[in-house]
Each structure stands twice: as C-alpha cells, then as structure tokens.
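Box S1 | Example of a co-folding query
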Amino acid sequence: MIPSDTSSPNFAGGLISNRATTARSCVVVGGSSGVGRALVSQLSACGDAVLAVARDRRDLAALQSDCLIRQDAHVRIVEADLAASDFDVAAFVKRCVDDLGHVTHVFMPLGLIDADDCGLPSSEVLQSLTVVNYLRPAQLLSAFCQYFSTISHGNAMVFTSIATDAPRGRNAAYASAKKALEFYCRALQHHFADTKISIQICALGYVDTTMSFGAKLLLPAAGPEEVAQFALRFCRTGTRFSYFPRFWLPIIMLLKALPWSLYKKLRF
Ligand SMILES: NC(=O)c1ccc[n+]([C@@H]2O[C@H](COP(=O)([O-])OP(=O)(O)OC[C@H]3O[C@@H](n4cnc5c(N)ncnc54)[C@H](OP(=O)(O)O)[C@@H]3O)[C@@H](O)[C@H]2O)c1
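Box S1 (continued) | Returned holo structure for NAP
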C-alpha cells in the first residue's frame, strides 16, 4: 500500500512553475538516483511534468530542490516502497494520474542487485530481486497500459541489462528477473501492435551509478546523463528494443555465437 501520508508531505504537488510545458506528463519509477535521477532532471529541463518515485524521501526531496533551483521546475515526488507486500498497484497508478492530471510516459529505471546473488542465490534473494526487477514493474506496466488504453495512447520504457544475454555465475536472480520483464514487454508490444501505445526496452551495459560502484568492469561505463539523453531520443523513435551503449550489440551477438566449450571458460 502507498503510505497514507503521501499527500503531504510525502506526496508533494501543487506548486506552479512559470515554465512552458510540453505535452509530456511523465512518471519515473526509481527516479531518485542514477539513471532515474538523470531522467527526471532532463525531462523537467524540457518543461515536462514529472513525478519521481522511490523509497528514499531525502534523495527525492534533494532532487526536487535541485530542479527547482536550477531549472525553476517543480518535480512532484512520491515516496513508495514497491517491494512492500501491501503495495497497491492500482491505487498507486491512480494516484500518479490524479496528481499529474494525465500520464503520457512512464519510465521504469528502478532496479536492485544483491551481493549474495552469486552461485546459488537463496530463496530470499530470489524473492526480493524478482519482486523489484520483474513482478512490480510487470504489474505497473499492466496497470499503466490499462490506463493508456482509456486515453488511446501512451509510452512505457523499461530498463534491463546486457546481463540477460550472458548467463553467468553472478547476478543470476537479477538477470532472470530482468529477462522475464523483457519477455513480458515483448508480449505487450505484440498485444498493442498497431495502436498508439508503445512499450520500449532499453538494455544497458555498464553505467556509472551506485549500482555498479566497486564492480570490476571490463569495458567503459556510460554516465547516467548519457543514458537519460539516449532514453529521450529512443522514446521519440518508438523502436521496441535497443542496447545502450550500442557497442554492446556486436559483443552480445558474439557471446551468443560462442560454442559452450568456449563460453563456459569465460570469467566475467
Ligand atoms: N548501473 C549499471 O551498471 C546498470 C547496468 C545494466 C542495467 N542497469 C539497470 O538500469 C536501471 C537504472 O540503474 P541505476 O544504476 O541508475 O540504478 P540505481 O542508481 O541503483 O537506482 C535505482 C532506483 O530504483 C529505486 N528503487 C530500488 N528499489 C526500490 C523499491 N523497492 N521501491 C521503489 N524504488 C526503488 C531507487 O531508489 P531508492 O533506493 O530510494 O528506493 C533508485 O531510484 C536499473 O533498472 C538497472 O537494473 C544498470
């Protein structure tokens, strides 16, 4: 369930910015840090109406202040733990729509990894990573797409990982959940084909955020701002799937083409 005190102060809205706004009205689920934070910042700089969602109220409030000071833009914030057992998906979506007036775009850069997701992850790790990386995003996609059906248009974008294409001994629970989310998105793409409702999948390589902090990276990491810029360009294309950075495409193709006798020897 969404905390009942989200209207005030957790659910902050109502200030009027003097910026000209575009037609976009966006929800960023996981908008407090990394790629989500960069997306919120760039969307609000474009004059879009933006509502950022995450668990940490202080991070959200800092982002809200930053956008107000630097861009004279009022970002709405919602503190919510999507992993909570009583999280009410339908109530959450209704609240987003009520607060923004209408929603045209949903970005879902939320994600969670776990240091114990290694080898054979425990039931608890499998459970928690599946809820945040697959179950809630899929439930939110269903609910937002149901809303988009009532207004006959809408765009949802999810963020997955190159890890889904390269099974390995680490991040098995994380990557499995992201793979399930990709599949669900592809099924929705088929369901909504030839409508004005689009679902886009952005598969990211390494990104320089807290999620990748301390990890040994084999290739350069993109900045979260670069990812956000790409996501906004990608959004305009309506393309169903893209890797970012793009150099991951040939690498993934190569990995997929490797015979098992070679693949199993890779240490990554
Ligand atoms: N960083 C990488 O190298 C990398 C690589 C490939 C793919 N990705 C994917 O790209 C996306 C963005 O990654 P990132 O590095 O920007 O992640 P990040 O910095 O860790 O941000 C994740 C966001 O999700 C929110 N979040 C996590 N659990 C939540 C929950 N239970 N309820 C509500 N919000 C929650 C976090 O806010 P709170 O903690 O305040 O809740 C935060 O805003 C993710 O989907 C990630 O899986 C990242």
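The first strand starts at residue 25 and ends at 29. The chain is about 45% helix and 15% strand.
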